[in-house]
């Protein structure tokens, strides 16, 4: 594990929530991206080496919509930056750690992501995140 990549926060409306993080807290607003595979719009705020991601559901099929309906707005997950995500997933599976995804899928910024089941960590949802390698 390299660092905490981001903390994902489920929100009902980016338009209503962004001003608090940008204007009140003074975090650096990095923009918004739609992630069709997760049915969400994501607003990004940089804080040191990590980020806060606000997650707004695009429709009722979104896991974020279901989360908000069940638990309300708030912290949804903690993302850990890793190298070789598939190797990490294989290792966790061998240890009997319950996974939501056994294979990574494409997330925001073309990263590869996979979620561990919250049963693995006393109810905390962790995301493994391997950033797209930049060509030099």
Automatic annotation (TrEMBL):
Keyword Protein transport annotated: no
One BP annotation, GO: L-methylmalonyl-CoA metabolic process
Domain VOC: 3-131
The keyword Isomerase appears for this protein: yes
Gene3D superfamilies associated with the record: 2,3-Dihydroxybiphenyl 1,2-Dioxygenase, domain 1
EC number annotated for this UniProt entry: 5.1.99.1
Pfam families xrefs: Glyoxalase_4 (PF13669)
Signal peptide region: none
GO MF annotation terms: metal ion binding; methylmalonyl-CoA epimerase activity
PROSITE patterns: VOC
Group of enzyme by EC: isomerase
Database matches in InterPro entries: Glyas_Bleomycin-R_OHBP_Dase, MeMalonyl-CoA_epimerase, MMCE/EMCE_epimerase, VOC_core
Keyword line: Isomerase, Metal-binding
Protein family (similarity comment): Belongs to the methylmalonyl-CoA epimerase family.
Protein name: Methylmalonyl-CoA epimerase
Organism listed in the record: Filobacillus milosensis
